[in-house]
Every structure is written in structure tokens, then in C-alpha cells.
Automatic annotation (TrEMBL):
PROSITE patterns: UVRD_HELICASE_ATP_BIND (PS51198), UVRD_HELICASE_CTER (PS51217). Keywords: ATP-binding, Helicase, Hydrolase, Isomerase, Nucleotide-binding, Plasmid. Signal peptide: none annotated. One of its GO terms (biological process) is recombinational repair. Residues 16-309 form the UvrD-like helicase ATP-binding domain. The gene is uvrD2. GO terms for molecular function: 3'-5' DNA helicase activity; ATP binding; ATP hydrolysis activity; DNA binding. Its EC number is 5.6.2.4. It comes from Rhizobium meliloti (strain 1021). This is DNA 3'-5' helicase.
């Protein structure tokens, strides 16, 4: 049979994966399928084709569940599916792909299902969701209540407590095992931690909030009931999961419960790109997938890389070849090039920034847009000096990863208003909101929240609370705002505008640079307009906040040209013609925080690999000889001498072109300056005599 036009561009293996089990017999569903593939081998492309092919062959798009790692990836996948479908279905394809309504992240899909099945599992469907920071704040409140913060030897911080809790539930392990393996230095606190987590769980339930982990945990609990699992599983004919290497144990349990025999199930991943073990993701999921089923899942391997040139791929293969455990084979490509990736040694971070700016501009001169170039780094703070240099030279850039738009205090303030209106039992939101009023501190806020908590309509009860002293007219306007927001049927996104009008005078009082912050709030409103309701807005935004301010809003930027700055984690799944990588030195990659266990080290190696495989035509790894250490104020001058990352030992140097920047010239003034001798001390003394 001739190949359908929409599959023509695929190679044979890709086509095999796309067509597997589709259209075999009327009504028969494909068995489980694992697509295991290296970087740039067209995984995402293949998955999009498979979804499109299903639709073209009559599958009901409303019954396809597609889970990706981020909302951005889900949106991109839907766009691709639409483009492919359009080739076959013509104009009606838009309608079909719009119906692909179950595309999102694991957590986002979990939240939707929990609201649908809330009644069956004894959950109040109006729950709000805590992000990591809110969760840490709530843990902190309980830590205080239990008196652990006052203990003589230091109790772990709220962040550590949350990390321990999260790892325990996501890895489906016992607390003592988690402590022994990952947090041996806090093992002595096991009993208190147990008590703390019990208190934390009870508080969340009393306040009707779920944290990120709960979305998976509740989902897993829900599908542990066979008839509920059946009911949910039967909503979907096909379940497809991208980036399967970064799922955790809990996620794989959920998946298996939905599709115990694997019919209609497709997962895609690359074990060499597994970089999220700090979220308890486990590469075992992908390795053990085939054998979970009888007969075992079909495996299709993709090893042809379409992205990078041969020399770039050779260097990346070299790096990953040294990994302890490997499952996917080395990649190959037919993209010839004479240009090897560069290993550029520079004096320090300032030179590193200068060197990159010079090359980025040279690339642009030769016709490569800024957008086709990216600078990647292990940790968000590494790009500081470069950001300064880019700003100084008026080169536009957008940064992904690191501090999120939603983490800024004023955006959090605004969201607290909306969250509290949505769920007045949410204590973390209530605390934040009430303390925005003049004269209201933690104690007063706590008392008010206690008073209203018992009432079935807490916001109504708020109207009866006497105004706190010194809050003036601000108290009444808050009460009125909340009651207006609580009214059923109030219009979205007008509600967020109401909240902003209320918040603006407080913004000016609380924050110094109110003007810039106000611009963010307007942007937030624009983002909000893209959602059908307050609840959807709050849920989606909390689960997967925009990575950069321009990610969703600020659309005009999309027409302009700008350089991409990104953490390696946020660069996942993307590609650029030219890629620069900052601080490819020991202490940065591997991060000095991650050199503890061999597991951690191996993950750092994979991170370097993920970064290198983002490059299509050019790759430059930067090796500054000294760099400033973190954890000090901006003018601090603690620095360390660095050496090239251990992941590129001498044996791999053959794959690189090593060079120094700037190229040393024989008569640089620095050298002649070295020969001058003056006696400053003597001059100082003569000033006084
Ligand atoms: N059959 C093909 N012919 C030509 N180009 C292809 C083919 N398949 C994929 N590509 C191109 O290869 C590049 C990588 O594809 P894609 O992003 O789907 O890979 P991936 O495996 O998901 O990558 P990674 O895991 O590294 O993020 C894209 O530019 C894509 O257009």
C-alpha cells in the first residue's frame, strides 16, 4: 500500500511507531507500545503523527488522553497534530483537533479528574492547589505549632521537610527508607517528621487544599478502586505519554491502573535524557515498561538523529558513552559538517559574557536570528553577568527557568486574593491577603482566620468580624471585594480586574517599584483572559507557571527577535541552530550540590548531554578559569579556580576544537603593565610628611 501523504516524511521506524496497531481490525485496539529513542530522533514528531494518524483513522479525539511534561509541550503537540491532520482532513481538521481536550500535564489532568470524581472520593470539588512555596509555608506553620522550630539542635528547614515529604510519597517509599537513602543527616528526627507530616495532611484536608503531590496521590488512591479505575480508564480509548523517562513511580502506577492490559497505551522516552530524579522520577519506569504486560509491549527504537551535525553528535555520544548504565544505542546522522564543537577557555565570567555576546552578534551578522541561538546554564543564577552585558548592549533576550513570573511578591499577592475568594479555608492565601492590610500582622490574621473557619460560609462570616484597629476603610473594602468575588456567576476575567483595582493602592504602599510591578499585573490579566474561569486559571497557572514573562503574555515580543537564555532543565525538548553553554566546569556541572552519590553524578552527566544535544549547527562549551561562588551579596568577591567538567576527560578532547578567548596577541597592554613597578606604600607615607 502506498504511504499516506501525511506520513511521507517519516522514516521507516518512525512510521512503524506511528502506525502500530492502528486500523488492523475494526474495533480492535493497539497493544502497548514503547517508543524508545535518542535525542533529536523525532520522538515528539512521531508522537504527534501517531495522535494525528489515530484521528485520521477515526479515533474520537475526545477519547484520547495525551500527557506531556509541560503545558507548553502540550500546546505545541496539539498544534503539530492539527497541521498533520489538515493534510488529510482539510478544513474540518481544526474542529477535530479542538476536540483533543484531554491534552496536558499529569498534574493538570489529575486535577481535572479529581474535580469530576470529587463526590465519589469524598473530596470537596472546590479545592485549591498549593504550589511548592505555599506548601512549604503551610509546613512551616505546623512546624511552629508543634514546637519543632524551637528545638535545641536544628530541626530541618521547611524546604527540606517538604522535599522529604514529597520524595516519600512520590517514590512510594517509607519515611525511614527515604531518610536513610537521601537525608541521613536528619534521620534522628524521624518521629517528629512523621508527626509533622500527619499534621500537614490534616491541615490540608481541613483547609480543602491539595498540593502538587496530592494530585497524583489522590489520583492513585482513586484508581486503586477497581471500578473507579475502570470508569476512568474507559473514558479514553488511547493514552499517550511523552517524556516517560521523567515520570515517577506514582505516575506509572496510575497509568497501569487506567490501562491494566496496556491496550491503547503508548509511551515515549529516552533513558539518556532522564533529568528529574529530584522529583523522584525513575528511569526504571521506562526500562520496566515492556514487561508489565502479557504479551510484552512492542518496542520501537529510533536512533537516527535529525537535529545535530555529525561532529556535535559525536561529542555528545562521547559524553553519554561514559555513563555507567545505558540502554539506548548511540545515535547517527547524515548531517555532515567540518565544524567541531568548541571548548572555549576564558579568564572569568565577565570574559565569558563578552565572548558570547561577540559570537552571538557575529552569527547575527551572518544571517542567524537571535532566536535561533540560545545560551544554556545549569543554574539560573549563572546567567547574571551575561544578562548585565546583554542589557548594557541593548540585545533583547528572554530567560526561561529559574525565578518564575509567579514567584514575584506582587503577583503572589494578587493570586492570594483570587485564591482566598475561591477557597476561604485556604490559610496560606488568607494569611498573605489579610496581612496586606495596614495594621494587620500574623497574630491578628491568624485570629480572624480562626474565627471564620468554623462557619459554613466563611466569607459571609468575615463581614461580621469587627474591623481590626488601624485598618481603617481598607477592611470594609476587602470584605466587599471578597463577597463580590464569591457571588456565583460573576464574570471572568472581570473578577481579576476587580481584584487589581482593590490591590493597586496597597501595591503602592507595600512595594517601592510599584510602576514596574503594575505592568506585571496587567500582563497577568492578559494571561487570565485566556482561561474560561477563575478555577481553571488558578489551577493551570499554579501547576505549570509560565517559564518566562513572555511565555504567554507580552505577545508582541513574539514578533521581535531575541536571544534565548535558559536553564538546561527548561531547554528540554527544544532546539536551536547555535547553542552556548555557560560554566562547563566542575562545581557548576556537575553542580557542587550534586556530587554526593553516583546517581546524582550520573544525572548531571545526562544534563550535560541534554544541553549539548539541543544544538543543530554550532555548539560552544564555555570554560571560565575562575568563577564567583554563589551565596554572597552582589558585590562579594569570593571566587574559585575552576577546571573543565569531569564529564569531558582528556580522552574526549579529540571531539572538540579547544581555544582560548580572547586570542592572545603578543603586545597586549596587560603584559607590559606587568613589568611596571611603583611603590604605592611609599607614596602614601609621603602624603603626610
Ligand atoms: N523523518 C524526519 N525527517 C526529517 N526531519 C525530521 C524527521 N523526524 C524528525 N525530524 C526533525 O528532527 C528534529 C528533532 O525532532 P523532535 O523534536 O521530534 O525530536 P525529539 O526526539 O523529541 O528530541 P529530544 O528528545 O532531543 O527533545 C526536529 O527538527 C524535527 O523536525
Amino acid at each position: 500500500m502506498a504511504t499516506a501523504t501525511h506520513l511521507e516524511k517519516l522514516n521507516e521506524r518512525q512510521r512503524c511507531a506511528v502506525e502500530y496497531g492502528i486500523g488492523a481490525e475494526e474495533g480492535a485496539q493497539a497493544g502497548p507500545l514503547l517508543i524508545i529513542a535518542g535525542a533529536g530522533s523525532g520522538k515528539t514528531n512521531t508522537l504527534a503523527h501517531r495522535v494525528a494518524h489515530l484521528i485520521v483513522n477515526g479515533a474520537d479525539p475526545r477519547r484520547i488522553l495525551l500527557m506531556t511534561f509541560s503545558r507548553r509541550a502540550a500546546a505545541e503537540m496539539s498544534r503539530r497534530v492539527e497541521r498533520i491532520c489538515a493534510q488529510v482532513l482539510g478544513r474540518s481538521s481544526g474542529m477535530m483537533t479542538d476536540a483533543l481536550s484531554w491534552a496536558g500535564t499529569f498534574h493538570g489532568i489529575g486535577a481535572r479528574l479529581l474535580r469530576i470524581y470529587a463526590e465519589q472520593i469524598g473530596l470537596n470539588a472546590e479545592f485549591t492547589i498549593h504550589d511548592r512555596e505555599d506548601s512549604a509555608d503551610l509546613i512551616n506553620l505546623i512546624r511552629h505549632e508543634l514546637g519543632f522550630s524551637k528545638t535545641e539542635s536544628r530541626f530541618p528547614t521547611k524546604g527540606t521537610c517538604l522535599a522529604i515529604y514529597s520524595r516519600t510519597v512520590n517514590a512510594e517509599m517509607r519515611l525511614n527508607e527515604v531518610l536513610r537513602s537521601w537525608y541521613p543527616w536528619v534521620a534522628g528526627w524521624e518521629q517528629q517528621l512523621q508527626e509533622l507530616f500527619a499534621g500537614y495532611v490534616e491541615a490540608k484536608q481541613a483547609q480543602n487544599v491539595l498540593d502538587y503531590d496530592d494530585l497524583l496521590l489522590y489520583w492513585a488512591q482513586m484508581v486503586s478502586d477497581a471500578s473507579l479505575a475502570d470508569d476512568i480508564g474507559n473514558r479514553f480509548d488511547y493514552v499517550l505519554v511523552d517524556e516517560y523517562q521523567d515520570t515517577n513511580k506514582l505516575q506509572s502506577s496510575v497509568l497501569l491502573a487506567l490501562k491494566p492490559d496496556g491496550r491503547g497505551l503508548t509511551v515515549v522516552g529516552d533513558d539518556a535524557q532522564s533529568i528529574y530524579s529530584f522529583r523522584a522520577a525513575t528511569v526504571r519506569n521506562i526500562l520496566d515498561f515492556p514487561k508489565q504486560f502479557a504479551p510484552a509491549a512492542e518496542i520501537v527504537t529510533l536512533d537516527r538523529n535529525y537535529r545535530s551535525t555529525q561532529p556535535i553528535l559525536a561529542a555528545a555520544n562521547g559524553v553519554i558513552d561514559l555513563a555507567r548504565e545505558r540502554f539506548t544505542k548511540n545515535l547517527w546522522t547524515d548531517r555532515e559538517s567540518a565544524e567541531r564543537p568548541k571548548l572555549l577557555t576564558v579568564k572569568d565570567e565577565a570574559d565569558q559574557a563578552n565572548c558570547i555576546v561577540e559570537q552571538v552578534l557575529a552569527n547575527r551578522e551572518s544571517g542567524m536570528l537571535l532566536k535561533q541561538q540560545a545560551v544554556l546554564f545549569r543554574t539560573s543564577s549563572h546567567s547574571g553577568p551575561l544578562e548585565v552585558e546583554l542589557t548594557r548592549r541593548n540585545i533583547p533576550f528572554v530567560k526561561f527557568g529559574g525565578l518564575k513570573f509567579l514567584d514575584s511578591a506582587h503577583v503572589k499577592d494578587m493570586l492570594a486574593v483570587l485564591r482566598f475568594a475561591q477557597n476561604p479555608r485556604d490559610r496560606v492565601a488568607g494569611f498573605r491577603l489579610l496581612q496586606m492590610l495596614p495594621g494587620v500582622g500574623p497574630q491578628t490574621a491568624g485570629k480572624i482566620l480562626d474565627t471564620i473557619a468554623a462557619d459554613p460560609e466563611p466569607l459571609m462570616a468575615l463581614g461580621e468580624v469587627p474591623a481590626p484597629p488601624r485598618s481603617g476603610t481598607d477592611w470594609m473594602s476587602l470584605v466587599e471585594l471578597l463577597q463580590a468575588l464569591r457571588k456565583p456567576g460573576s464574570a471572568w476575567p472581570t473578577e481579576i480586574e476587580m481584584a487589581r483595582m482593590w490591590y493597586e493602592p496597597h501595591l503602592e504602599r507595600i512595594h517601592e517599584d510599584a510602576e514596574t510591578r503594575r505592568a506585571d499585573l496587567v500582563q497577568l490579566e492578559q494571561i487570565a483572559a485566556g482561561y474560561p474561569s477563575r478555577e481553571r486559571f488558578l489551577t493551570e497557572l499554579t501547576l505549570d507557571p509560565p517559564d518566562a514573562t513572555s511565555d504567554q503574555a507580552g505577545v508582541p515580543l513574539l514578533d521581535e527577535d531575541y536571544l534565548i537564555l535558559s536553564t538546561i532543565h527548561s531547554a528540554k525538548g527544544q532546539e536551536w541552530r547555535s547553542v552556548f553553554m555557560l560554566n562547563v566546569v566542575d562545581g557548576c556541572i556537575p553542580s557542587d550540590l550534586a556530587t554526593g552519590t553516583s546517581h546524582e553524578l550520573e544525572e548531571e552527566r545526562r544534563l550535560l548531554y541534554v544541553g549539548m544535544t539541543r544544538a543543530k549547527d554550532q555548539l560552544a562549551l564555555m570554560v571560565p578559569q575562575r568563577f564567583f561562588t554563589g551565596g554572597q551579596h552582589a558585590q562579594g568577591d569570593r571566587h574559585v579556580y575552576a577546571s573543565r567538567t569531569r564529564f569531558i576527560p582528556a580522552t574526549l578532547l579529540q571531539f572538540f576544537e579547544s581555544a582560548n578567548w580572547p586570542v592572545a596577541s603578543p603586545n597586549v597592554s596587560e603584559r607590559s603593565a606587568k613589568q611596571i613597578r611603583i611603590d604605592v606604600a611609599a607614596r602614601m607615607r609621603t602624603m603626610w610628611r
